Amino acid sequence: MKIACLPGDGIGPEVTAAAQQVLAALAPDVELEDHPFGGAAVLEQGTPLPDETLAACREADAVLLGAVGLPQLDAADVRPEQGLIALRRELDVYANLRPAVGKDIDLVVVRELVGGLYYGARGTRDDGTVFDTLEYHPRQVERIARRAFELARTRRGALTSVDKANVLETSRMWRRVVGEVAADYPDVELEHVLVDAAAMYLVQTPGRFDVILTENTFGDILSDEAAGLAGGLGLAASASLGDSGPGIFEPVHGSAPDIAGHGIANPTAMLRSTALLLEHGLDRPAPARRLEQAVEVALTRAPTPDLGGTASTQEFAAAVLADLT
Questions:
Q1: Pick the catalytic residue: 94, 118, 119, 185?
Q2: Contact 34, 90 (CB under 8 A)
Q3: N or C: which end of the chain has fewer CB within 10 A?
Q4: pLDDT exceeds 90 at position 200
Q5: Tens of pLDDT along 51-98?
């Protein structure tokens, strides 16, 4: 089996290196290949997603992605984030799973990832008006809804569909289609919640949620809120899955250029993403559970500076490896 590794920018290469050490221990038969991506690829090749990188991702069993983003490219015409959006579209990884587990929270956000506002028509009119279009086809809603219902069946059997049906036509269609899909899952309890109310409930009573299903933009925001409640973006993992082909597994945090090169980045989110890769990308749930448990141990024994400790990225990775061997 083969994993395409896209270290990317900032702390991306540092946390990716930690993940590669762990994969070498847990899956020594799997081939790891590095490929240029993001800001580093823009500076080297003028594009955030080179053709050879895309080809390698298509041929891989899974894609492990570090982080993208360089401050000097924030206002550029070609930006690192464009490569990420393009890669998601090209691999059609429409189901983004964002677990959030903490003291008072244990949920998964299922975010539709390749439609909606980020992929709709956009532009500037002659009068200076700028527009971005939010659009969905019922088929896009149906497939992500089925993913969420199937996931809810493996958890506590509760699904919260989040929309803005009191204002948006897309949300009214979303609510209708999700309700239709629910008929095939009588064992899952469905509730519809408006996005503003959902944001409030996440702060007040996060334990009420099991699986949250929502569209691209709402999911982007709510999953970060959930990550904050679970301890911060430095701990948050994600898996982006399609119906066929490789998934993309990446930490939720950005490239953190302010600490890049100092060796102090917390690799927890990347290692948790690696556990998701083992489970969903390589179909190896047993080593995935071992890695999750080892990360929990390392969080208490070798916390990094962002968690009030002094461990370096490499020391944290060593603590995880020590628990695995």
A1: 118
A2: no
A3: C
A4: yes
A5: 999 999 999 999 999 999 999 999 999 999 999 999 999 999 999 999
Is 224 annotated in the active site? Answer: yes
Does residue 325 surpass a pLDDT of 90?
no
Residue 241 and residue 55 in contact, taking contact as beta carbons nearer than 8 Å: no
Of 74, 132, 196, 283, which residue is the catalytic one? Answer: 196
Distance CA 84, CA 28 (A): 28
Residue 14 to residues 83, 108, 115, 271, 313: CA-CA distances in angstroms? 20, 27, 31, 12, 7
Bridge-based pairing state of the strands 106-112 and 130-132: unpaired
Q: Whole-prediction pTM value? A: 0.93
> What phi and psi values does residue 261 have, to the nearest 5 degrees?
85, -5
Identify which of 174, 110, 113 has the alpha carbon closest to the alpha carbon of residue 138: 174
> Hey, what CATH class is 103-229 in?
alpha beta
Which one is catalytic: 9, 94, 164, 210?
164
Residues of the chain with CATH 3.40.718.10: 1-98+233-325, 103-229
Secondary structure (3-state) at 238: strand
Q: Is 243 a catalytic residue?
A: no
> Position of tokens 């993403």?
273
Catalytic-residue membership of 2: no
Chosen CATH of 1-98+233-325 out of 3.30.460.40, 2.40.30.200, 3.40.718.10, 3.10.105.10: 3.40.718.10
Helix (DSSP H) and strand (DSSP E) numbers for the chain: 11, 12
